[in-house]
Each structure stands twice: as C-alpha cells, then as structure tokens.
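hey so i finaly got around to running the thing on LuxR family transcriptional regulator from Streptomyces chiangmaiensis. pasting the sequence first so u can double check i didnt mess up the copy paste, my clipboard has been acting weird all day
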Amino acid sequence: MTVRRDFKEPARPRPDLIIGREELFAGAREQLAAGGSVLVHGPAGIGKSTVLRSLATEYGEVVRTVLRCSATESESHLPFLALADLLGLVVDEVACQLPAPQRTALESALTGRGESTLQRDGLALRLAVLSTLRALASRGPVLIVADDLQWLDPASAELLGFAARRLGGTPVQMLCAVRTHTQPQGQEYDRCLSASPPDTLAVRINPLSRAHVAELLDHRGYTGLPRSTVRDIHRTSGGNPLFALELGRALVESTTPPSPGEPLPVPTSLRALVLNRLEALSAEARRTLLVASAGARPTLALLHAAGRTNAEADTAQAAALGLLVTEQDAPGVRFAHPLISAALYAQADAQERRAAHAALSTAASDPIERARHLALATTGTDPEVAARLGEAAAVARDRGAPSVAAELGLLAARHTPSDAVPGPDERRLQAAADALTAGETDFARDIADEVLAHATEPADRVRAWMVVIDAAGHAMAEVDAVFPQALADAGDDPRLLTLVHYQLAWRALLVEGDFERAREEGARAADLAARAGDRRNELLALAFQAQAETLMGHPDAPLTIKRALKEPQDPRVACDHNGAGSVRFRWLIMSDQLAEARKTVSSLLREARRRGMVEAEVHFLRGLAETELRAGHCGRALDLARESLRLARDTGIGEAASAMLTSLAEAAGGEVDRALSLAREAVARAEEDGDVIYLSRALAALGHAQLVAGDAPGTVHSLRRVRELEEGLGVTDPARGRWHGDLAEALVRIGEPAEAQGVIDATRARAQHLGRESVLAVLDRAEALTRAARGEANAAARQLTLCQDRLAELGYRLEEARAAYALAGLPGRPTGPAAYDEAARLFRRCRAMPWLRQVETATVTSPAQPPLAAAALDSLAATERQVAALVMEGATNREIAARLFISVKTVEATLTRVYRKLGIRSRVDIVRLAAGRPSG
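ok and heres what it spat out for the 3d tokens, dont ask me to read them lol
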C-alpha cells in the first residue's frame, strides 16, 4: 500500500504512554510510515489500548479519513455493529459511487432495516465494503482504528477481512488491537489476523521491566515507595502496567503496609479479575491453591507433604479453569499469573493463612523456607522462633541472598522478646545491613529510622546513624546533621568512634573535597579500630586512607595499600567496593598494568556477585568496563558499562558514577549523542548531591564527549572547570581522570596552542614524577598537535609516530588509533582516503564507531558535494535516495532514522541495498561517487 508522502511530523505521545515501549513505537511508526498496517496484541491490562490511541493520535493527523470502532464483549453478538461504527458517519459521502445492489445491501446492514444477512446478501455486502473503502481512499489516505478485535462481531470481522485482502495498492491502513493470552497462536488470534491486510505487522506488547514499572509509578504520582516494594509490585503484577498501578495505588492509600514476608495487598479492583474463576473451585482445591500461593516454589511433592493428599486432582481442576499453567515434565506448580496467587492469598483470612504456613513449616525441605513459614504461622514473641529465623538469615547471607536475609532478620526481630540477647534492635540493624548489601537503601533507612525512634543503647543508635549515612550514598551533604548526633552517642567508645570517623573521612572527601583531611580522618579511624580490636573496620579505614593517598599522588600510598592487604583479612571486606582489593585495582589501572587490573577486578566482581553485594557489583562492573576501555575493547566496555548503568538505575546506587563511565564508553564505541546526554546527567546528579569528587569526573566525561562530537569550545569550557576543581581538591595524579590531553587538543583546535603547551608542560612534570607512562604518551600526542599548529609538521610527525608505538606497547589501543588519526591529518601529509587507512584499521579493531565516523568525514575533502549522478539516482528507490542524500549531509544512521521515522536497522538495510545497486562498499564511496571521484 502507499500513503500520502507529504507527512507533517507527527506529535509524540505523552511520556507515560511510551515508558518501556520506545522500540515498539519506533517499529509501529516505521510500519505505518511505509504504508503498512499494525496489529497490537497482548494480555488484558498490558497497555494495548494506550498504544493504539497514541499511534492513532499521531497518524490521524496525517491521513484524510479516520474510521474507528471499539468492540465490547456484551455487544459482540450484534451483527454489523462494528461495521456501523466504522462506516455509519461517512457512507453518505460516497454512497452515490456504489452500484445500486451494493448500496442497498450496505444500507440495510448499517441501519438494520431489511434484515440483511451475510447468507442472503454476502457478495453484495462484501463488494460494498470494498467499494466504500476504495471511494474514501480516492480522496486521500484512510486509517481504520479498531480496538478489542476479539469482541468484533463475526459478520463485521468477515467483511473487513474480505476487503483487507483485496485493497492492494489502495491507501487504506489498519491499526488494530486484540487481546491474546499467550504467544500468537490459536483460532482467535488467526481470526483477528485474517481481518487485517496481508502486510500487517503484528506487535506483541510484553510486560514492563522493574525499572520501567518504577518509572511508571513515579510518573503517575505514586512516589516514595521503597525499591523493595517496587520490586514486589513488579513481581506481583508480572510487569502489567494496569496491575502495577492498581497495586501502587492500594499501597499508597493503605494505612497498614504488609508485614515482612507477606505478599502485597491486592485491591478489590484486581481481585475481581480472578475471583470469579476462584469461586468455581471446590473448597478442597481452593485450600490446596492457598498452600501453593503461600509457598515460594510449590511442587506437587511439597503440597503432599503439607497434607494436601489430592493435590493432583486439585491442581488439575485449577489448570482447567486457567488458574495454573501445566508444564510437561516440570514438577513445579505455577500460577498462570502472579496476581492470581496474590489475590488468592489476600482473599484468605488470617487463620487460613497461618494454617497454610504452619503446614509448610514442616513440609519445606529448605531451612530458610521452614523458618519463614514458622514465623508467619506464629503470633507474638517466641525466642525459639526468633533463633531459628536468625540462623536462617545467616544461611541466606552465606548463600549470597542478602535481601532474603534482611526479610528474615526483620521477622526474627518481630518474634524476639525485649530482654533477649541478641535483642530486637540488634536484629533489626543486622537486617538493615543486609538490606544495604542487597542495594535496598530505602528499606535500610526505614529500619534505621524505626530503631532511632525508640533505642537508648549507644551502640544501637550509632549503628543506626551509620545506616542512615550509608543509605544517603554520595549525597552525604543531605545528612550533615547526623554527624554531631552520632558523635554524641558514641561518647569515648573507640569501637563506635571508629564508625563515625570512617564516615567523616568520606564526608571530607565527597562533600568538602579536602583530600588531606579525608586522609587524616581515615588514618584516625584505622587507629581507633586497632585500639578496639575491630579488624574489619580497621581494614576499611586503611583502604580508604590508601585510596585518598592514591588520588593525591601521595608517596605513602603503596605502603598503605600493603598495610590494608596484610593478614588477617575479612572475606567480606576483601571484595567490598571500598576494600583494599578495590584500591589495589585502582592503583594497577593508574599504573598502566592493564592485564593485572583486569584479572583483579574480574575476581572482585565474581565474589561480589556470589555474595549478593549489589553496590560492589555496580562498582566492579564499572571498573571492568574502564579496564576494557583503556585496552581499546570498546564494544566489550560499552556492554559492561550499560550493564552497570541498568543495575545502578534499578537500585538507585551509583547512578552518577555509572552514567559518567557509560558516557565515556558511548563516546568510544557507541553513540556520541548518548554520550553527551549521559555526561550531562552525571554532572547534574553530582551537583545535586554536592559530590565534588564525581563532579570533576563527570565534567571530564562531558569534555571528552564534546571533543568526539567536534565541539572544541565546549570541551575547553568543561575541562577548564575540571582543572579548577582538581586544583582546589588537591588531586595531583593525572592518571586519575586522564583529561589533560583532551584539553590540550581542544585548545589547539580553537587556536590556543600556547595555553595547550602550558597544560602539557604542567601535567608532564607530575606524570614523570609518578611514572605514568600512558599519560606521558598521550601528552606527546597533544604536543605534536601544538607543533603542527606552529608549522613544525615534520617534528610533529616524528613525535606522533613515536607516541603511537609507545601506546601500542602499553596496550592502549584506542589511544594508539587516535595517534594514527592525528598523524594522517597533519598538514603536508599525503591527502586522500588512503592516508587514513591505518587509522581506520585501528579504530575498526577497537570497534570505535564514533571515531570511525570521524575518519569517514575526514576522507571527504570537498565541503559542498554535488548530487549523485542522474544515472545513479535512477537506480535507487525513493527511500534509498532519501537515505543517500542524508549521508551526503553527513548524518549518522541514528540521525537518518529520526528524520525519516524509521529504525536504525532499516537505515542499515537500506544502505546495504544502495551499496549493492551502485557497486560501492561504504558511506565514503557514496560521497566519492557524488563528487565525481572513483570509488575505492
């Protein structure tokens, strides 16, 4: 089909309509823009109608006629109702163009007069619908929008299908939605697809991710929910946006949140979706399913052990009603949707729930599950139950499941008598520590606030204050008022003072940017811990001191690292993101020992994942990404950085740092626009948090992205700010941020070679003192550019050749490629595409796509390119000509996709066809051909 091509740019949908649906919208838009039809499908509440309305709003503005219908189950028995909705208001416009028999049959069907039927007037009606759509399309493009196709009356569905199969090149498109429960299959789905044109794109709307559910809840005003609660909402809703919003609304409105270990309360609005099917169960089957809903991983064997002797028959009955999903050769009992399990549990009274948990407390084989069920079956305090829960929490902690350990710890606190040892507050604080390990900072803060509201013991209060500070992350300025209170509660106890002074060291670093004071506070915390015999916190304090000294370029840094690595060690500190292992990794990567750095950080990442230490996992993912980036493995670095950013956004931990590192990875191997966006996000977050340390690093990432984007003035502005910040902070090691070469290069580009030389000279002195070989090589590359700017082309070429070899020897492949690129562009060097072959080869080896695009641009010497030869144009289709023309303008594939409303993959496929038709191999060849030069 074809549609009118003079489209104005369609309006974009509201942000809440496309959360988690960006790729889906892009594919649907591309299909509609190409003249095709779209069938949206998925389960109830997944957002089909929302997507349909949004797309219809966009494309209703660029077609002449929009025909709409929305079927309902109660009206699906009425023949021709959907047809009347679609054509009733427009048929008079074209009725005179229909042959009399067709006009009579259609009028009878639409008005109900004459009792028209498909059996009696089938052919006339079919032809009438086809003729009407053709007549409307002769005046301009037509869009048919039909929601809930599953309820379309059979007569209307048959007539639409007949017309859809015969419209051919007529500009009539269909945009429809249908409810499906599983993957597209079955008679119902086939019937709906048959009512659409042959070229229809079927788009399945899948569940939202946890991050997208959190974004949706925030956008709809359900803010302030702890991340652990959002996780439960996502799990219970199955990623269904309607269900998630209803659960969020119920929680916000509830005055009694669920107790630890209990499922979320299910509002009546959602219970109604499944209770009618639950009512069809026998009483025994319902009790069996209640036991299954209370279990973590129910199986038939578990149900039997819990006293459900007829489990097979009961589950078979539930499966027949669509409540359970049967899986061949699978022992598990799985609910068709998590909401069914939650609704069943919510509907049961307290006594029924306790009975189910009591049965499972003896039936479950796992000690953690037995303890959890015992707690939920018991009311009031019980020291034996509390002890079993504490033991189960320790098992979960050792298994690397700190989130489970936190839940069990709170259950243990609830059942612990006030005079027991350990007491309820001690158990709560251990649960808070586990929650921090799991990345559930909001949950941990809530626990600490509860303890502080009533605790009088100094040890409990200080530990609670430490949780509050840890939960603040890099936004330590927000909890400044905590420190005097924590010092007052600590008194003169060296063990408690260790905790406070360790956090004061971090505050001096992050908030004040005072490295010397931070170093002193770290050393003081280490001394206090040694006096108290607290080896764990002594190791953390020594690691902090070593980190501060490393960033300062302090001569004692290697010695302090050795002290922090000295035995005895604490296994959890060894893989902590603030432990000595992390500091050693930083020292290795700053000292150009990339292979050993990769080995070290990979080991730390494995151990952090094994122990479920989420913050450490985010941190070490960044470290591994940085190592791969330094080594020039840009694709691998980009994958790791994006993984770190996803985890950071999901947990709210280290978002600024992960955005900063991902910006560097995007600038090296991804998309420059995204690199700029992420760097600006990192800057904004660091400024909001008052984090001066990461502000300098974020600005350095922004300056680098601006350099890759060709914005030399922007680079200079950003990196001058970095220079001012680091001078004020006392950061002297240039291997920390590695921004100095970029600043010098950008200064040369804007005509300031003297300032560039000043940056190089000052940085070189520090790098030589510290033995930073890779930094020195990069400075040589920048200095060669200053020499070239002064007209010393031969000296510049010799220096670039030497620094390229040195960078290759050190293993810095991307920096080596940049040196080759700079060499190819020197004045007086041979010109033409061949001059850049070596740089292109090296960038391609690194998968450094933004730099490769710069090479392609550099090989085109003429600023204004003539159009492609007429003979070449004639061989291209319309879309191919548009893509080729935009390539001529220097647009990237992503920019072309945005301007033509198609996907990047479609741009790539179109370019492949262009290359084949023109007998060329690359984007550069398009430009050469257009300029009248032979392609390479």
